[in-house]
Amino acid sequence: MSGSFYGLEIMKRALAAERLALELTGHNVANATTPGYSVQRPDLVDLPGVPERPGVVGGGVDVRQITRQRDLFLDGEWRKSDAQLADWQIRQQVYQQMEVALDEPAGQGLTGPLNAFWKAWNDLANNPSDGATRQAVLDQANNLVQALQQTDARLVAIQGGIVSAVQSRVDQANGILDQIAQIVPQIRLLLARGMTPNDLLDQRDRLLDQLSHLTGTTASFQPNGDLTISLPDSTGTGQVTLLATAGQATPAALHLQFDANTGKLSATDGVSAQQVGLAGGEITGYVTMLTDTTQGLPALRQRLASFAYRLATDVNAVHEAGLTADGQTGVAFFTLGSGTGTSFDLSSLQVAVTTPGGIAAASAQGWTADSPLPTDDGRNAAAIAGLANQQADFALPGPSGGTLRATPDGFLQATAATLGNQAQGAQGQVAGTQALVQQLANQRASVSGVSVDEEMVHMVQYQTAYAAAAKMVSSIDAMLGVIIGELGSAGH
Amino acid sequence: MRVTETLRGSQLLLDLQQAEERLMRAQNRIASGRKVSLPEDDPVATADGMRFDSELALDERIGRTAQSAGGWLQATDTALGSIGDILLRARELALQGASDAVPPESRQALAKEVDQLLQQLIQVGNSRFGGRYLFGGVQASGGTPPFQPDPSQANYGGYQASSVAISIDITGSGSAGFQLSVTGDQLEGAIQAVQNLETQLASGTATASSVAGAIPAIESALDDVLDLRATVGSRLNRIQDVQSRLQSDQLLLRQSAAKATDVDMTQATIDFSVAQYSYQAALAVGARVVQPSLVDYLR
Fold it and tell me: What angle separates helix B215-261 from helix B188-202, to the nearest 10 degrees?
C-alpha cells in the first residue's frame, strides 16, 4: 500500500507541471510575433505508480521535455524556394535599373538624339552652304556621342552599385557563418545533457534562413546537433563544404570572398581558396547580372558598344567618300578608339570633325582638285541621312555572338525589346516563385507559428488543472487532518 | 490547416501589398497616359512604339526636304515665268523692228528697250531663294552671281556657275535621285537670243530682214523656257504628291503609335476602379479577420 503522503506527492508534481505549462504558454504568447519562433509544448507524461493490490495507482504527471514544433523538411524546401525568389527579385530589380538607364520608350534615351542626328544631316543635304546648318550637324553628333556615353556611364554606375551590394552581402554571409559555428557547440552540449535547447535551435534556423536567402546554401543535420553547410562547386556537380561541425570542439567556417574583377565567388580558409557555384540567393542574382554576357548588364553594354561602333563606322565610310567644304576627301567624321563590335570602347568615341567646313556634304564624284567647289551639293549629306534607313550587321553580345541585320533604329528597338523580354521573364519568375514561397511559408507558420486562440485555450486548461490540483491538495490535507487530529481523541 | 497569428498576418500583408501594387500600376498608367513606361510592361509594344517614332521622324525629315524643295521649285517656276514674259516682249519688239515701215531711229529706240529686257533677264537669272542663286547649280552660293554683265561682250559675260544641278533625296533612301534645280546654262539660249536681237536692232545697217533673222532664236528660246516650266511643274507635282502621302502616313503612324504605347483611358479607368474595389475589400475583410481573438472573450 502507498504511503500517506502519496497523494500530496502526486499533486506536488501536478502543480509543478501545470505551472511550467502555464509559463510555457506565456513564453509562446510573448513570442507570438517573433520571426522564426517555433511554438513550444510541454511534453506531459503520466508517471507509472507503485504496484499494489488491487492495482496500480499512477504516479501523477511529469514534464518529460519541452519540444518545439518544427518541420525540418519544410524548412529545407522553403529555403530552396526563398533562395530562388531572392535571386530573381534581385535580377528584376537590376533589370528595372537597366531599363531606366536605357530610358526607352517613355524617355528620350537614344532614339531622340539619334533622330536629331539624322535630321541634322537631312537639313544639311537641303541647305549645304548654310553655316548654321553645318554647325547643327556637329552639335547633334556630339549630343549623340554624349547620350551614348551617358547611357553607358549609367550602366557602369549600376555595375558599381552591384559590386558593393555583393561585397556587403558576402560580409553579412560570413558573419552569419561565424555565428552558426559558435552556436552549434552550445546546442551540442545541451543536447548531450538531455536538454532541449529550443530557443538556440530557433536562432540557428533563423540564421540558416538568412544565409540561404543571401547565398542559397543547403544544410544537413545530425541528431546530436552537428550540421554541415554547403554550396555547389563551380562545376555544379560537387559540393563545397563551408562549415562541418562534426568532431570539431570549436568549429570554424570557411569565408566567402568575391573578386569584383573576375566576378568569381570563392570559399577560403585564409590559406587557399576554392571557387563556388551560384546556387540562388541575392548574391547569385547580383553576380549573374554583373557577369552574364547574354542576360546581364554586360549584354546591354556590349549592345550599346556594338551599336555605336557600327553607326560610327558606317557614317565614316560615307563621309570619307565625300567632299568637305575645304575641298578635302577621305576625312573621317568620328574617331573610333580601341576595339571593334561588342568590345568597342564606347568612351573612346569622339566626333573627329571640329569645324563646320570639315563636314563632307558634297559628293566627290566627278570633282577634280582644280574645279570650283560644289558648295551647294548636299548629296553626300543625303547619303549619310539615308543611313537611317539602311540595314547593317550589328554584332550581338554573348558567347554565341552572331550579328543582327537591322537599321540603326531597328537595332535600338530590338535592344529595348530584348531587355523588356528579359525583365518580363524575371518578373514572371518572381511572381511564380513568390506564390510557392508564400505557400511554404504558410505551411511553416501553420506548423511552428503561435496561435493566440490556441494558447488561450491552453491557458484556461492549465489554469483549471492547476486550480484543481490545488483543491486536491487541500482536500488531502483535510483528509490527513482527520486522521492526525481527530482520531487521537477516540483513546481518551 | 492550423491557422496561426504569423500566417494570418503575413497572408493579409501579402494580399494587401498585391492589391496596392495593382492599384498603383493602374493609377500610374492613368497619370502618365502611357501603357508602357518601361520595356518590361510590354516588350512588343515598346519596340512598336519606338519603330513608329522612328518612322515618324523619317517622315518628318522627308517632309522638311519636300517643303524646302517646294519653295525652291515655286520660286524657279516664277522666275521662269518672268523669263517667258521677257521673251514674249522681246519677240513683240522684234516683230516691230522687222517691219519695213519702221525708220532706223525707231530701231535704235527699240534696241534701248531690248537692252533693258536683257538686263532684266540677267537679273532674273541671278534671282535668289533663301540666299542661294536659283540657277547657280551646285555653286549657288558663291560670292559672284552666276550671270555677270560684262561690258566688253555687249553687256553679258556668259554663265559663270556650275552646270551640275542640285539633287536631293526625297525618299529617305540616301541616294539623291531627285534633280531640284535648273542650271543657268539652260537659260543661256534665251539670253543670247535677246542679246542678238539687241545687236541687230542697234546695228547701223539694220534692215527689216536682218531684224527678222533674230526672231527664230527667240521663239526657240521661248519653247525651251516653256519646256523647263513644264519640267519644274511636274517636279512640283511630285513634291506635292510626297507631301500629301506624308500627311496621311503621319496620321496613320500617330494613331498606331498611340495604340501601341498610349493608355486606353476607358480601360484604364475601369482597371483602376476594379483595383480600388479589390483593395478596399481586402482592407475591410482584413480588418475584421485580424481583430478578434479568444482574448476578447475571456474574463
Answer: 150
pTM equals 0.85
Per-residue pLDDT of chain A (492 residues; tens, 9 = 90+): 567 788 898 999 999 999 999 999 999 999 988 888 999 999 999 988 877 777 788 889 999 889 999 999 999 999 999 999 999 999 999 999 999 999 887 667 898 899 999 999 999 999 998 889 999 999 999 999 999 999 999 999 999 999 999 999 999 999 999 999 999 999 999 999 988 899 999 999 999 999 999 999 999 999 999 999 999 998 888 999 999 999 889 999 999 999 999 989 999 998 999 999 999 999 999 999 999 989 999 999 999 999 999 999 999 999 999 999 988 999 999 999 888 889 999 999 999 999 999 999 999 887 888 888 888 899 999 999 999 999 999 999 988 888 999 999 999 999 999 999 999 999 999 999 999 999 999 999 899 999 888 999 999 999 999 999 999 999 999 988 888 877 766 555
Determine the Cα–Cα distance for residues B76 and B83; give it in Å rounded to an integer: 10
What CA–CA distance (Å, rounded) separates A438 from B12? 11
Closest CA to A434 of A78, A97, A35, A94: A78
8 Å CB contact between A412 and A419: no
Measured CA to CA, the distance from residue A17 to residue A477 in angstroms comes to 20
- Least Cα separation, residue B133 to chain A (angstroms): 10
Indicate the SS3 state at residue A273.
Answer: strand
Region for A366 from its dihedrals, namely left if φ exceeds 0, alpha if ψ lies in -120 to 50, beta otherwise: left
Q: Does A456 touch chain B (CB under 8 A)?
A: yes
Kindly report the nearest CA distance between residue B67 and chain A, in angstroms: 10
Contacts of A376 (CB under 8 A, 6+ apart): A128, A129, B132, B136, B137, B138, B139, B140, B141, B166
Mutate: best of A122, A411, A439, A463, partner B, most B CBs <10 A: A122
Q: Which residues contact A98 (CB under 8 A, 6 or more apart)?
A: A155, A158, A297, A300, A419, A423
List residues bridging with A289 in a β-sheet. Answer: none
Interface test with chain A among B5, B67, B295, by most A beta carbons within 10 Å: B5
Q: Which of A105, A115, A372 sits opposite B36 (nearest CB)?
A: A105
